[in-house]
User: Fold this.
Amino acid sequence: MLKDRNTPSQGRRVTAGRPAIAIALASAFLAWLTLTGPAHAVLGQSSGSVEADRAHFAAKIASAPGSTYTIHTLTLANNSVVREFARPDGVVFAVTWTGPARPDLRQLFGDYFDRFQADNAPVAGRRTRRPLSSNHADFVVRSGGHAGASWGQAFLPQIAPTDFSASDLK
Assistant:
């Protein structure tokens, strides 16, 4: 039996290899995360990873294909419902939500979240009770509700199918 150099009289085993293995595994995992990129279906990105959103929200999922888009409906544990609209090529062009609480919008908006957050920054350092929104040619968000009842929709009009309109999100 090998003994620890610092305390030879206590009869401890050498464990120098365990930290090295843990560091190697952590490094491999971080490299894998870097190479695979974000693993969630977000606005403007592929819906091939809608399953990651389901896992993130611990939700039940149902998909309903249509002629020009598919709706992936996620039902969260708190009874919130998130719907992700994807074109036939799999690109998510709209997201809606309803329920007792607003879902993780960073997860749903991806790269658009920072712009949404900037559009809704507190005015003069004070938070307001106004609905959160963004209104750009390429990114539109409408939301509202009150404690216990939240709703919203985010839409990328420039990449939506030609026969789709914002009224289809209701």
